[in-house]
């Protein structure tokens, strides 16, 4: 596994806006789970389905979810936009060109996708690897469940939301 502690600043294209950005700009100041994927990967759609589900959970309301397609920009758009409602609507989608994908693979040490990188709000890598390498119950910014409810931020104070399903 790589010893990189910060995500390098790679150029990206935001697939929703077609605007150019970079990893430093797109993920600045937010705890983020990034899924690197390709349009040819057979496991990637299921992984993105799972990320989209996590993104809908109140436990992850303070976490940004992102995908970076590393092979075909138009292919990624076609997959994401194949129905009236965008697929994986709770995930922010980006594209990374081939040369930068190869650099990312070399620097981050990944050989297959899906490959996850988890960043804290300072842009530091706190976890990375395949699905079995990521502790999705220990993500920076994640709300911690209590035995009878979920702790929720309400302005400056914390509120306790009771779980009434008992």
UniProtKB/TrEMBL annotation:
The lineage of its organism: Eukaryota, Sar, Stramenopiles, Ochrophyta, Bacillariophyta. This is Thioredoxin domain-containing protein. It comes from the Eukaryota. Residues 1-159 form the Thioredoxin domain. It comes from Cyclotella cryptica. InterPro entries: Thioredoxin-like_sf, Thioredoxin_domain.
